[in-house]
Amino acid sequence: MGKVIEDAEESVATLKSEIKALADGIKKLDASVSEATATRKEEHDEYVETLAGNSAAKDVLAFAKNRLNKFYNPKQYKAPAARKLSEADQIVVNNGGTLAPTAAPVGIVAQAQAGLMQVGVAPPPPPEANLAYKKSGEAGGGVIAMIDLLVADIDKEVQIMEVDEKDAQKDYESFMQDASDKRAQDSKSITDKEAAQAETETELQTSTDDKKSKTIEAMETAKYIGGLHEECDWLLANFDARKAARTGEIDALGKAKAVLSGADYSLVQMSSVHLRGAGHA
How far is CA 132 from CA 72, 74, 128, 135, in A? Predict the structure, then answer.
């Protein structure tokens, strides 16, 4: 019984240790998931911001290229959409006035500059001072080619970013799935081990109660055996006296039986005395 209780206590201690280890592991896993989620969000936000900057940079480069085409390649120039006039501008036009030229939106320019800095390229340099001495097609071709090169660099950068973003998202989703599976498995293990612990503790309590009951029973048995020993010792110590007394009792019972059968016990006794006397003579 003692071995059974020791084994049960050791099993309960082991289960408690394993449950604690699993619970600590789940806490660390949850912390890793939170950290990975925060990192993925930061990376995605940076990707979106950089993508917006690159898109704005391409818009401004396209705007600049179109303006250059107006001067160097008129056939490739694309006129801007018709300007929607305000009520005041419409009055100016109706009266024969001229509206101020439309400039590129300031916000787009700022975004384009930021986007060009992000992709690691500088804005195109201003036209050289001696452009007037070169053919218009040659000068325009050089600047436009540079703009096309910048756009190609931006497109390449965007492709790399998209691949990196896709791979990062795929790795994150894979990690989240693995973490979810691991958490579910560990949670189930905790549930199973807690059930095993409860069952073992019940068995341990039952064994402890049985041991206590058997201990009390053994004490009562020992007490009873001790009493028997005392009786036996008394019987052994008084055996001869009890044997003699028993013999006397049997003789007395025999005489009593003879009397009851009608014999004159006194004559028998006197005859017995005379016979013993004659014997002595």
Answer: 12, 18, 9, 8
Which residues fall within 8 angstroms of residue 147, CB to CB, at 6 or more apart? 61, 64, 65, 68, 124
Q: What is the pTM of this model?
A: 0.55
Q: Are residues 100 and 153 in the same domain?
A: yes
Residues 269, 169, single domain; the answer is: no
Clarify whether residues 114 and 53 are in a common domain.
yes
Residue 87 lies in a domain: yes
Does any domain span residue 220?
no
Residue 177 is part of which domain span? 2-207
Considering its fold, how many domains does the chain have in total? 2
Burial of 109 (0-12, 13-18, 19+ CB in 10 A): middle
Express each pLDDT in 32-49 by its tens digit. 999 999 999 999 999 999
pLDDT tens digits, one per residue of 49-102: 999 999 999 999 988 888 888 888 788 778 777 667 677 766 766 666 665 555
Let me know: does 127 contact 144? Beta carbons within 8 Å.
no
Q: Which pLDDT score is estimated for 98?
A: 62
Distances (CA, A) of 254 to 42, 50, 97, 260: 120, 131, 168, 10
Which residues, at least 6 apart from 190, have a Cβ–Cβ distance to it below 8 Å? Answer: 19, 22, 23, 26
Regarding whether 164 and 106 lie in a shared domain, the answer is: yes
What's the token pair of residue 119?
Answer: 């992709």
Which is higher by pLDDT, 77 or 16?
16
- Whether 38 is covered by a domain: the verdict is yes
